[in-house]
Give the backbone structure.
Amino acid sequence: MLMSQFLQSRKTVRSYKTKAIRTEGMIEIRRILDEENEKMRAYGAELLFLEDGEDVVRLLEGKGGYSGVMIESPSYIALNIKEEKEEAYIYGAYYLEDLTTKLYDLNLGSCWVSLGGVPAELKRNIHVEPGSVEYLLAIGYPVAQLGIGEIPFSSRLGVEEIVRDKEGKGLTMDELAQRGLDDLFYYVRFAPSAYNNQPWRFVVEDGRVILLIQDYKDKVTLVDAGIMIYYFEKMLAGTGIVSKFTVHVEDKGADKMIGTIAI
Ligand SMILES: Cc1cc2nc3c(=O)[nH]c(=O)nc-3n(C[C@H](O)[C@H](O)[C@H](O)COP(=O)(O)O)c2cc1C
């Protein structure tokens, strides 16, 4: 499936059938995890497959998720931050989101689950050190089939609200079309973010785009940045430009610069 189509149709799934993931699916997930972990090693993050979701729910009920609303699913993937550094959050999210696109091909839905409010001692039951499990991805077969039925709608900011030029003026879809960047920015807005906060802001300069996180307060927005970097690179590749972000995290007043990408 085209990445633009995927972005527009993807939705966080919060209700899963109790049925376990099929054996072929399990095998495929383990294979994908090995691949992702190989790529993540350099960044100090890793993904762990928690096949028995009931164990996880027993442990985290009332504690994991937004305000302790745990998302129940037959299995989970854990994002273990092995080295407490910005890159571990950014690229941990990048590769975990890459996994979500592959799960979609296995007819599996997913939901990021925040573990910020869960005591460290409790999380150590999920995984012993080194590292700390900061997020889970709930995975399973959606109760309502993907793309069919009542799908809750999460709104998105307009392109003009998140993309600006060097002088700080918001760029319209027409102005972006003149640079061949309209589709790219239209679709990347559908990336998921914690609380749907959509903290990403872009500055379009000649030949490059800068990604910023607006009003930086929390590491969770580094995760949002990693997810955005993933979709941005994929969408750009779809236009024939193979380019990667150079991540260089730096405070810019209240904002945080995450990195730049040549376009
Ligand atoms: C880092 C991160 C953490 C999230 N944590 C939770 C969570 O704990 N509980 C939950 O229900 N959804 C969680 N979500 C899902 C977001 O709320 C969801 O992606 C956003 O509201 C947009 O909705 P959509 O994915 O359906 O477009 C999280 C998403 C991200 C990226």
Notes: The CA atoms of residues 77 and 161 lie 33 Å apart. The chain is about 35% helix and 20% strand. The beta strands are 45-50, 75-81, 109-114, 132-140, 163-165, 200-205, 208-213, 246-252, 255-262. Residues 11-12, 14, 65-66, 71, 111-114, 135, 154, 192-196, 220, 223-224, 227 surround flavin mononucleotide (CB under 6 Å).
